[in-house]
Design a protein that fits this description.
single chain, alpha/beta, Rossmann fold, Alpha-Beta Plaits, 2 domains, 6-stranded mixed beta sheet, 4-stranded antiparallel beta sheet, 11 helices, binds adenosine-5'-diphosphate, binds magnesium ion
Length: 320
């Protein structure tokens, strides 16, 4: 546990420095660097085989890098694994089978292996049971739990020693929509409570809403490190807009066709689609021109690029 007298670490809570891992002919992780500040959620996104699990296992002290290093609160996973483990909760992507063990026994086992004793152990177990919503399941054998409940138990195990940092490897995989929404809520609560979280997925849309930033990795290489909004902004030099008109769109089409920054103008019924350069000023100017011409604008909004399209663009090099 952290001593209350020590000043908290001011630097990044998680840092990868030119991390590289080679298995035979495979560069599973290739010179990857990024940092995650305290209390933020970093989404680690990439297709299967991209190198997510390998880098997370190195951070979690379960694997050694070929070169480079990984740090938790400034402590090297390579040189200081014991102190790293005390600060870290790791939720692996696969959950082993534990026949004849119930939830309470399982968590108690991990509380003991983390050195928790006496009242502190009771207090932490109670907190984890309540936080994960597993209290009513405490006597249930693990093998009878739903996927969602198993994930909660696995998260409870990662949280038992009150770590500052969490590494969650594909926790949303295989969850139904309800369980996924619950997971998102749990993760936001943990971040609001000051925990730093690295979470992986092969689906950008699964994580986009809960992450402060995302890193996109493919074939071991980090291709992007940005906010989702930032990625969207970089992915195209223009923006697509829709204006929905009350009544006949002819007058609005006329006004828009006279604005030099408007391109690819077309209408489908009362919905007018066009492109313009990025930036708020251009958008505002266009809306003013429509209003000045007394066009009855019902809606005026950007066409949001789908996260799948964005992911494809990043991984095929169309986003720099
Ligand atoms: N222990 C290992 N031995 C050999 N190759 C491995 C091992 N672990 C992972 N790999 C390979 O490293 C690459 C990255 O795998 P992984 O980190 O599991 O990717 P991800 O989690 O993004 O799906 C894959 O090509 C995988 O086959
Ligand atoms: Mg993996």
């Amino acid at each position: 546990m952290n001593s209350p007298l020590r000043t908290p670490w001011q630097g990044p809570m998680i840092e990868l420095q030119q991390l590289t891992k080679v298995f035979g002919d495979t560069r599973a992780v290739n010179n990857v660097s990024f940092m995650v500040p305290r209390g933020s959620v970093f989404g680690y996104i990439g297709p299967n085989g991209a190198g997510k699990t390998t880098s997370m296992r190195i951070l979690s002290t379960l694997e050694l890098p070929t070169s480079g290093d990984a740090f938790i609160e400034g402590l090297s996973s390579v040189n200081d694994p014991d102190r790293v483990r005390r600060r870290l909760g790791f939720m692996p992507d696969a959950f082993g089978t534990y026949s004849d063990t119930n939830c309470a026994e399982y968590l108690d086992f991990f509380a003991r292996s983390n050195g928790l004793v006496g009242r502190e152990r009771t207090r932490r177990l109670r907190w984890v049971m309540d936080f994960t919503g597993l209290r009513s399941m405490s006597e249930k054998p693990i093998n009878g739990l739903s996927k969602g409940m198993r994930q909660r138990l696995c998260l409870g195990r990662a949280l038992i020693h009150d770590p500052s940092t969490l590494i969650l490897d594909e926790p949303a995989a295989g969850l139904d929509p309800r369980a996924r929404i619950d997971l998102r809520q749990i993760i936001r609560t943990l971040a609001a409570d000051g925990k730093t979280i690295l979470i992986s997925s092969h689906i950008l849309s699964e994580l986009a809403e809960m992450c402060d930033r995302v890193g996109i990795i493919e074939r071991g290489t980090l291709l992007a490190n940005d906010t989702v909004a930032g990625l969207k902004g970089k992915s195209k030099p223009h923006q697509d807009l829709i204006v929905l008109i009350d009544g006949d769109p002819t007058a609005a089409m006329q006004v828009l066709s006279e604005i030099p920054t408007v391109a690819n103008l077309e209408h489908r019924g009362q919905a007018i689609h066009f492109q313009t350069g990025v930036g708020a000023d251009r958008r505002i100017e266009i809306l003013h021109r429509l209003c000045d011409a007394r066009v009855r604008v019902l809606e005026y909004r950007p066409v949001d690029e789908s996260l799948e399209d964005l992911f494809l663009k990043v991984t095929t090099g169309q986003v720099q």
